[in-house]
Design goal:
Blueprint: H1 2-21, E1 25-33, E2 36-37, E3 42-51, E4 57-64, E5 71-73, E6 79-85, E7 89-99, E8 106-118, E9 121-133, E10 139-142, E11 152-161, E12 167-173, E13 180-182, E14 187-193, E15 197-207, E16 212-217, E17 220-225
Parallel strand pairs: 2-9
Antiparallel strand pairs: 1-3, 3-7, 4-6, 4-8, 5-7, 8-9, 10-11, 11-15, 12-14, 13-15, 16-17
């Protein structure tokens, strides 16, 4: 008789655990505006909190855990409250955040703490949402070299990464121009160029006619005749 009672208690506890776990809230339809956030910018994160199980949920608290991330709440804080979500219903949740200007470009995983009551039980869980932080490289080029017709010229171009994002596999290329004959390679491989850093690309060429100038478009240097 004692063995039967023990087995009955274990079965009852197992059923109780199943009943509690069958009343969980889940995050779905996560989006951000803009979809990719540059360092130093603000963004809106929104998602649905769904109750797809048997019991309603009340006294719901949703909190973003941002302590170890280069992301901070903006405006109304990092916590939202919802009075009730009925079974098989959902409610939208929205947060305004600001990304640090020193944030590295990557996908940040943000823990979301959810606490609520269901069947008179106080429950908590942690879910995750993602925020993509990405900035475009800003490459500029400078040169003070004077180019002279009728002789071989050396053009030293200082390439500067003026943006927040590190650049990899940077290649500087001079496009072919009528009247200008390259005496060196028309490409110079720089490779990695960190934010707020610079490197120099050198080109040699012979100018047959007219006066030469150059211009820059993103990571390309274009030499042309005026």
């Amino acid at each position: 008789m004692k063995i039967q009672t023990k087995l009955f208690s274990i079965a009852l506890a197992f059923i109780l655990v199943l009943a509690i776990s069958a009343s969980a809230l889940t995050i779905s339809s996560v989006s951000s505006s803009p979809s990719e956030i540059a360092p130093g910018q603000r963004a809106s994160i929104s998602f649905n909190l769904e109750n797809n199980f048997e019991d309603g949920a009340t006294d719901i608290s949703v909190k973003l855990n941002l302590d170890s991330l280069p992301i901070a709440p903006y405006g109304s804080g990092a916590e939202r409250t919802i009075d009730r979500i009925k079974t098989e219903k959902s409610k939208g949740v929205e947060f305004e955040v600001s990304v640090s200007s020193t944030a590295q470009s990557q996908t940040y995983k943000i823990p979301v703490s959810i606490s609520y009551k269901s069947n008179n039980q106080a429950l908590t869980k942690t879910d995750f949402i993602s925020l993509i932080v990405r900035s475009k490289p800003q490459i500029i080029a400078l040169s003070s070299d004077i180019l002279i017709k009728g002789r071989e010229n050396t053009l030293n171009v200082k390439v500067i990464n003026n943006g927040l994002e590190n650049v990899k596999f940077l290649n500087v290329k001079m496009l072919p121009v009528s009247g200008i004959r390259m005496t060196s390679s028309n490409e110079a491989y720089i490779g990695d160029l960190n934010s707020d850093d610079s490197d120099t690309a050198e080109f040699k060429f012979f100018i047959n006619n007219a006066r030469a100038s150059f211009c820059v478009s993103e990571d390309e240097i274009i030499l042309y005749n005026e």
